[in-house]
Amino acid sequence: MGAILVTGSEGKLGRHVVARLREDGRSVHRVDVKPLAPAHDYTRIDLTDAGQTMDVMFGVQDRFDGVDAVVHLAAVPAPGQMTDVATFHHNMAATFNVFQGARRAGVDDIVYASSETVLGLPFETPPPYIPVDEEYDARPESHYSLVKHLEEQMAIQLCRWDPALKIIALRFSNVMDVEDYAAFPAFDADPKARRWNLWGYIDGRDGAQAVSRALDHRARGFDRFIVANADTVMSRPSAELAAAEFPAVPVTKELAEHETLLSIDKARRVLGYEPQHSWRHHA
Ligand SMILES: NC(=O)c1ccc[n+]([C@@H]2O[C@H](COP(=O)([O-])OP(=O)(O)OC[C@H]3O[C@@H](n4cnc5c(N)ncnc54)[C@H](O)[C@@H]3O)[C@@H](O)[C@H]2O)c1
């Protein structure tokens, strides 16, 4: 059996994903651009290099023999960290190389990180309805988000070319570690502070759960899922927040008190995803 190759394994989300997949009993090989001490389960790679990325899909001498599935998380993870041009080129090239390398090597199971940003963050243009879901056209508002949108479009076409291929885009909300929850009471004090993503978040462990479930999902072709926690970062009720900050936007369902406004109904229904963690348990 080959390994599950996790790109961006040393990142905020990657570390949770590696831990979760190991708990699941899967064989994981980590790849990242970070220079680490030699380890049997880690290989340093620059995914913007097509040759290295193609090669790793066939294994690495003295490390592992082949790849069964790819979890692709490596990216410049936000706008502003590099120039707009560099963010675009870096992320687009890395993801194309991963998709292309996997296909050439016959790896037909890919789960990768898209982003909540394609839903129209920071919502200076209000969303068409609340809760937002996967049903309306992407509205990228940054170069970073533009790449996330183009990656989804690329994945759709690659799956059309190859009906045996599965690519699942997980549109993660803002990733949080337990240590980050100390900052949440301050968000609570100012409804405008987190209006930009409809007060959503994703606990890294629940993000990893979604990756695990997406790997288990057997259907072929492309699909996309919003992955957020079941609640918001706020103690003010979700319906009140929506009415106060987006008065002209229709609310399409009866909202539970702190229900997420980034709908996870599809991930629940199709993947069996169910968040296990909430910042409220750590407050
Ligand atoms: N952090 C968030 O709030 C958030 C939200 C939505 C989506 N995402 C997406 O989730 C994924 C993971 O994000 P994160 O928060 O863990 O980011 P992160 O920066 O903590 O981790 C990304 C990892 O990718 C590695 N990497 C970057 N370029 C690389 C390259 N060319 N070759 C090999 N490795 C490379 C980095 O060294 C880093 O370890 C990204 O695709 C990001 O866009 C993140």
Give the arrangement of secondary structure elements.
Blueprint: E1 3-7, H1 12-23, E2 28-32, E3 42-44, H2 50-56, E4 67-72, H3 84-104, E5 109-115, H4 143-161, E6 166-172, E7 175-176, H5 184-189, E8 202-203, H6 204-216, E9 221-227, H7 238-245, H8 265-271
Parallel strand pairs: 1-2, 1-4, 2-3, 4-5, 5-6, 6-9, 7-8
Bound molecules: nicotinamide-adenine-dinucleotide.
Nicotinamide-adenine-dinucleotide binds near residues 8, 32, 34 and 47.
Distinct ligands, ions and cofactors found in the model: nicotinamide-adenine-dinucleotide
- Order of helix and strand elements from N to C terminus: EHEEHEHEHEEHEHEHH
Strand order of the largest sheet: 3-2-1-4-5-6-9
Largest sheet: 7 strands, parallel
Could you name the ranges where pLDDT drops below 50 across 5 or more consecutive residues? none
Quaternary state reads single chain
The geometry reads as globular
Give the total of beta strands: 9
How much helix, percentage-wise, in residues?
Answer: 25-40%
Strand content: 15-25%
CATH superfamily: NAD(P)-binding Rossmann-like Domain
Q: What's the quick description here?
A:
The protein is 33% helix and 16% strand. The chain has helices at residues 12-23, 50-56, 84-104, 143-161, 184-189, 204-216, 238-245, 265-271; strands at residues 3-7, 28-32, 42-44, 67-72, 109-115, 166-172, 175-176, 202-203, 221-227. The strands form two sheets. It has a seven-stranded parallel β-sheet with strand order 3-2-1-4-5-6-9, sandwiched between helices. Strands 7-8 form a two-stranded parallel sheet.
